[in-house]
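User: quick one
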Amino acid sequence: MMSALPRSEFPLLAASPRLAYLDSAATTQKPRAVLDAIRDFYENDNANPHRGAYALSVRATERYHEARARVAAFLGVGDADSLIFTRGTTESLNLVAASWGRANVGAGDHIVVTGSEHHANFVPWQQLANERKARFRICELLPNGLIDLDRLRAMLGPRTKVVAFAHVSNVLGTIAPVHEIVELAHGVGAIAVCDGAQAAPHLTVRFDESGLDFFAASGHKMLGPMGIGVLAGRRDLFEAMPPFLTGGDMIEFVEDDHSTWNRLPHKFEAGTPNAAGAVGMAAAVSVLESIGMDTVRAHERELVAAAYHRLAAIEGVRIYGPGPDDRSGVLSFNVGDVHPHDLATILDSHHVCIRAGHHCAQPLMRRLGVSATARASFYVYNDDADIDALVNGVMAAREMFSRVGV
Amino acid sequence: MSASDDRKGAPNGADAHRSNVEALYQELILDHYRRPRNRGKLEHPDVALRKKNPLCGDVIDLQLQFDGDTLREVRFTGEGCAISQASASMLTQRLKGKSKAEAAEIMDHFTRMVHGEGGGPDESLGDLRALAGVARLPVRHPCALLAWDALAEALGSHR
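Assistant: Done. Structure below.
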């Protein structure tokens, strides 16, 4: 299995030929095209968007809006102005919880999340529930880590205001049945909020067709730069919500005692936007489109299947979650009594980058009955050599620990 | 060209890194990890302290029993990586029977060794010198120091 996009397109990987980078669920490496686009913006079009009457500022504004249109098209958002640029998924989800949540969730209402959420789609809702005296409810998972739709159905009722879930789990790689969850949520009059941080980089996302009310994603997990992300949402919801942050750009008129709000998307983009970040994210989206999301997915399915079977064949390796067919490009595992942090240190000495720890999903760790796991995650630049390095490193760690009996 | 052919890059500095890691995970440390010394709880500890590393979930419960100024019993329980657990096990072994002043001095030597300060590990550290390689792994410093953080607080809180 070769890479879907050659390593030579990624300056960092090209400079470190032996590096097996298997932590793309944390952040991806950046292709030259993205780095060039950011540089090009600053070298040729840099000015504060929406501010100046001069041509350069107009160009900056155009580049920023063009970036929005491209990211919107990539995510299947027809109305580009209902795609808000944020710092990333965490800010996007906080925006929904703080703004829509405070306006719509009251005492005794229910907020439902699943047991496999990243803290970014868990803590904002937990805090909102505590603040509003609402009930924060966690839908437990099936034994293989998939969302239990029967249980979810039974939990929902007229008091349910929000169903928040990850499209793809950052720990197990499980893929949520978005359509079914949206139907269940809408069936009781709740909104469906989707954490798409691990989905947008790997799967075809069609926001408008999904029926979702909100969808959040991060640029840096899909070949783009850090510090830029999006929140796609239904226009009617955005228009009825109060702003999240206030200040420059998001206002219409500021009187001494009150203010009125700018139209979408500006209403939710207070302050100078990260225009270069948006341009970089748009360039990343173009790279993904040129590979084709079907190819991205097919490539990662092959890698995950190969890694899954080869790791599972090593004595003492335990892989969490379902089989390779039901997951995206993420494998969480443990190796006997080798603690994941020791494993990560040993793998690092074999030029293999994996993540070890709770992966910002402590509630899921409790449900798995572990304090930490090792996690390998794959993306377009990975190939068989990376899996070889991973497997060899895991064997070396086992070997090292087997010198002393239990 | 196969995927692995274009991946045979020139060796780089990471090979020194590998020897360091291999030296760190030596039998002594793994032995303390698999067969921790003084593991358990005291019936009547004078001081009991829990330290957690929120980043990785490592946890150490340290219990001390004094006889005047002397650490008569030092026990621990905990969960976590080989480095945090071996460090705790070695701590208990090294400090049992020491005075508070001696314990503080060993703690100081150990902390400096982990931070890579001073010229090589002090002989008074005994087996604990096996953890010297951690100095070159900054992300693992908190693991090696977790039990010692508990000790520092425990010594401070005792009378």
